[in-house]
């Protein structure tokens, strides 16, 4: 019976837990290369990024993580209103 996986072992693979900072908050990361795009799904893996320390890692597709927020990227990319004025 010692070799059978217990609930604590399964929890490691079904919940996100950052190996660096210990955070349990993560969000999906972009697939960068062709191998990440086509090979990772074969092994049921996806790229994820820690929300606290921003470490990038691969986890099972079944691990629940937050979706990327494209509105945050748009807010960062757009200049602040009035930034084009020349004020001395």
Question: What does this protein look like?
Answer:
The protein has 88 residues and is of the alpha+beta class. It has a domain at 9-67. Helix content is 24%, strand content 16%. It is built from three helices and three strands, in the order H-E-H-E-E-H. The chain has a three-stranded antiparallel β-sheet with strand order 1-2-3, with no helix packed on it. The longest helix is centred in the N-terminal third of the chain and has 8 residues, at 7-14. It is elongated and about 65 Å long. The chain starts with 6 loop residues before the first helix and ends in an 11-residue tail after the last helix.
Please supply descriptive tags for the structure shown above.
alpha+beta, three-stranded antiparallel β-sheet, 3 helices, elongated, 88 residues
Strand residue percentage = 15-25%
Kindly state the number of beta strands.
3
Report the C-alpha radius of gyration, rounded. Answer: 19 Å
List low-confidence stretches.
none
Task: Tell me the span between the first and last alpha carbons.
Answer: 76 Å
> What spatial order of strands do you see in the largest sheet?
1-2-3
Helix content: 10-25%
């Amino acid at each position: 019976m010692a070799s059978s996986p217990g609930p604590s072992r399964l929890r490691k693979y079904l919940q996100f837990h950052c190996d660096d900072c210990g955070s349990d908050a993560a969000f999906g990361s972009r697939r960068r290369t062709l191998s990440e795009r086509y090979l990772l799904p074969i092994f049921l893996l996806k790229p994820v990024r820690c929300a606290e320390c921003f470490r990038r890692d691969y986890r099972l597709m079944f691990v629940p993580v937050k979706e990327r927020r494209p509105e945050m990227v748009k807010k960062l990319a757009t200049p602040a209103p009035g930034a084009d004025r020349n004020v001395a």
